[in-house]
Design goal:
Elements: H1 2-8, H2 18-28, H3 32-46, H4 50-62, H5 71-76, H6 80-95, H7 108-117, H8 123-143, H9 149-158
Length: about 170
């Protein structure tokens, strides 16, 4: 599950030194398929200037994103189910010391870091994540087929998400 935290680094905002951090994360990845996909993402980001990477990050994930990186939003849109889900994630993140880094609790970055440390894992997250990831990958493929973030999403999908077993509710 540690691999989820390593992949979460890919969603961080680009800055000087970030490529070195991503390469370190890549070196630590255990999953073969995830490692290969994440390597493609890191290589693609390395080919960009910092300004190009910032523009790609913003276009892909922030302003009118090419895919919505919020698990709850992908599943329910903006309604009370998402609110309940985010409240549940917030409690779990606080319980396990996961800093959302300014993101909403259902953003992929803190969600992945939660998956790396929570025991037991929230059942609601385990139930929602695989379908949400599939939808995110599909949306990105449809919007921009050659976007390097597709490799990051594919790397996440390569890691086995355990089935819900009655974890944190």
């Amino acid at each position: 599950m540690r691999d989820f935290a390593l992949l979460a680094a890919g969603f961080g905002y680009p800055r000087r030194g970030r490529i070195a951090e991503l390469r370190t994360a890549l070196d630590q990845l255990e999953s073969g398929g995830a490692r290969k996909r994440f390597g493609k993402f890191v290589d693609a980001m390395n080919e960009l200037t910092l300004a190009e990477w910032e523009e790609l990050h913003t276009r892909t994930l922030d302003l009118g994103p090419l895919f919505v990186p919020y698990v709850g939003y992908v599943v329910w849109g903006d309604n009370y189910h998402r609110g309940e889900f985010m409240a549940e994630l917030k409690v779990a993140q606080e319980t396990f010391g996961v800093d959302p880094s300014g993101e909403l609790p259902d953003h992929l970055e803190p969600v992945l870091r939660l998956l790396a440390v929570a025991d037991p894992l929230p059942d609601s997250l385990l139930e929602m994540l695989p379908g949400a990831l599939d939808k995110m990958r599909s949306e990105l493929k449809e919007a921009e087929r050659d976007n390097p973030y597709r490799h990051l999403l594919a790397a996440i999908a390569e890691i086995h998400v355990p089935a819900p077993v009655g974890g944190v509710q």
